[in-house]
Amino acid sequence: MKHVLEVAEFTLDQCSKCNICVTECPVVRVTDLFPGPKYEGPQASRFRQPGQPSPDRSVDYCLGCRVCNMVCPSGVQIAEMNARARAAMVEQGKVPVRLRLRNNLIARAETLGKLAGPVAPLVNALLGDSRVRQLVDVTMGISADAPLPAFSGHPIYQAGVGVSGAYQPLGGEGQVVCENLMVVGTGLAHCDAL
After folding, report:
1. How far is CA 63 from the centre of its chain?
2. Which is more confidently placed, 186 or 141?
3. With b meaning 16 or more CB within 10 Å and e meaning fewer, what string describes 120-140?
4. I want to staple 133 with a disulfide (CB 3.0 to 4.6 A). Which of 34, 101, 128, 144 is the partner?
5. How many CA atoms lie within 13 Å of 107's alpha carbon, on the beta-carbon side?
6. What is the 3-state secondary structure (H, E, C) of the chain?
């Protein structure tokens, strides 16, 4: 992992400040608390020194979705720089335990699905209760107003997708590989569209 992060640092000087990453970032679209991938990645990385405290907590708003990497015409590895900055904040104790718990839960959607799937109706009912949502807001920092997807009691692999992610489309021929399909109906519709 260290090698990947070192390579990411070598790409920061390739940033031409075109702002394509900022335009496409899903977080920038919904909050002013995140200044954007360009600022958090290449610009801020120029000032981060090993062992030095990270000056900006807004990097924690980065989803790690890598959209910035995909749209960057210069190949700057912005998401990796942000991941490194977040890791440094955790090491320095700047991320409270409740937010580390939140981040670890959100980052493991497959595990959440496996745990909640067998009791999906109960979990969905609880997450639909405003008192439970307020408790989750206070304890883990997930806004009570944030929309949450409903859990399904039927894993997508039981509906036609194998463990490897290969899916036999409705048309019949070939296989389509589908990744990260967490919502059964949407995931299967996505595969059929492919």
Report:
1. 4
2. 141
3. eeebbeebeeeeebeebeeee
4. 144
5. 12
6. CHHHHHHHHHHHHHCCCCCHHHHHCCCCCCCCCCCCHHHHHHHHHCCCCCCCCCCCHHHHHCCCCCHHHHHCCCCCCHHHHHHHHHHHHHHCCCCCHHHHHHHHHHCCHHHHHHHHHHHHHHHHHHHCCHHHHHHHHHHHCCCCCCCCCCCCCCCHHHHCECCCCEECCCCCCCCEECCCCCCHHHHHHHHHHC
For the chain, give the number of residues: 194
Look up residue 152 and give its amino acid. S
Within 10 angstroms of residue 100's Cβ, the number of other Cβ atoms is 13
CA distances 9 to 14, 25, 49, 188, Å, are 10, 20, 11, 38
Can you tell me the distance from the alpha carbon of 128 to that of 187, in angstroms, rounded to the nearest whole number? 22
Phi, psi of 22 (to 5 degrees): -65, -40
Q: Label residue 39 by pLDDT band (50, 70, 90).
A: confident
d(CA 95, CA 28): 21
